[in-house]
Amino acid sequence: MASIGHVAVGMALGRYETGAGAPWRRRVAVMAFLSLLALLPDADVVAFALRIPYAATWGHRGASHSFVFAAAVALAVAALARWKGESATRWGLLTLAAVASHGILDTLTDGGLGAALFWPFSNARVFAPVRPLPVAPIGAGMLSARGLYVSGVEFLVFLPAWVYALWPRKKARAAGSVQVP
């Protein structure tokens, strides 16, 4: 899967988190942070440079795409949130949703080996019963016609998330204000 869908999920979660009254800078920061968390499992592409086989536990779409990995990252972010005086529960759940969504979305692609969602309990790579998303080429292959096609399909599939995340918000009305038609 190209990164477009993963970023869209992070952006939509950021919009949900910040609500209508948050300042612009906070909205952007939260959307960027949750988008980075949604992309985090793909940091495993470093395995290719380290010559770790694709099918290995720490290969691409391996352990970093699991629910256990997502839970570990969520616990770390929750601890950081508590230390910063934020809601640990809320940030833990947002992080869990962002990171876990990555592996789930990757199971919807039509190629690769699947995702190790249930690691460490199982090393099996799984796919969803329905796989509507074309698998993205890795690396420079994204600059090919195939990469452009995959990006276009993914953009269209995740367009509702992008619209939700980026649609302008209505300004909150001040108490007692009169609205002129």
UniProtKB/TrEMBL annotation:
Q: Which InterPro entries match?
A: YdjM-like
> Is-annotated flag, keyword Lyase?
no
**What residues form the membrane-spanning segments?**
28-50, 62-81, 148-167
| Keyword line | Membrane, Transmembrane, Transmembrane helix
Q: Superkingdom, according to UniProt?
A: Bacteria
Q: Which PANTHER family match?
A: INNER MEMBRANE PROTEIN YBCI-RELATED
In Swiss-Prot or TrEMBL terms, this protein is called Metal-dependent hydrolase
Lineage of the organism: Bacteria, Pseudomonadati, Myxococcota, Myxococcia, Myxococcales
